[in-house]
Amino acid sequence: MDPNPWQEAEEHISAADPVMRALIARHAPCRLQRDRVLFEGLLGAIVSQQLSVKAARTIFGRFKDLFPDGVTPQAVLEAPVETLRGVGFSRAKAAYAHDLAAHVLDGRLELERLDELSDEEIVRELTAVKGIGRWTAEMILMFDLARPDILPVDDLGIREGFRRAYGLPERPGPEEMARIAEPWRPWRSVGSWYLWRVLENEPMSQQPEPG
């Protein structure tokens, strides 16, 4: 296995952007990798919405403990809402988990073929599920599918990372972030990962997702 699969990306960004060059030198190597079962990754992304990283991990750990034989779409769909609420899900997130499981079971969402689709096609497929908005889809693209060129402009951690790293007076909007990150293409996922390192945190979810 390549000890640093993102070396080309780091070299490209470092050459294009002196601010990022310093961040990369301090925090390398990038540790983005595909290390989760996709269905579990989607559930984890739903859980993490509007929660701190610590709280989301605790709730998701309790959730997984409900399924000693594995977190499968059938098992999740059969889990009563009150059981899910008992481990920390809101009523809305329990409904989102059930809707996700139903989409997978009836074939509306074919997880095994997502790798064949473009980034935007995947966003459209995922956001057809209740509770999955663009932010969640972008987290899946980065952390579950290892897509290299995602810039999650709705993520508060990314916005704050830009502000601190570039010494901006306030958190930038999507257009300013896209402008700054343009030289990183086609490796904006890697640049985003390094911006989170400015905060020494993982992605922050504070964006409302559709219900």
Mind explaining what this structure looks like?
The chain is mainly alpha-helical. The protein has 2 domains: 78 residues, Orthogonal Bundle (Endonuclease Iii, domain 2), CATH 1.10.1670.40; 106 residues, Hypothetical protein, domain 2 (Endonuclease III, domain 1). The longest helix has 15 residues. About 2% of the residues have low confidence.
**Residue fraction in strands:** under 5%
Which oligomeric state applies? Answer: single chain
The topology string of helices and strands comes to HHHHHHHHHHHH
Which spans of ≥5 residues are poorly predicted at pLDDT below 50? Answer: 202-206
Profile the largest sheet.
none
What is the architecture of the largest domain at the second tier of CATH? Orthogonal Bundle
Shape call: elongated
- Helical content band: 55-70%
Mean pLDDT: 92
Structural class: mainly alpha
How many DSSP-defined strands? 0
What is the gyration radius calculated from CA atoms?
Answer: 18 Å
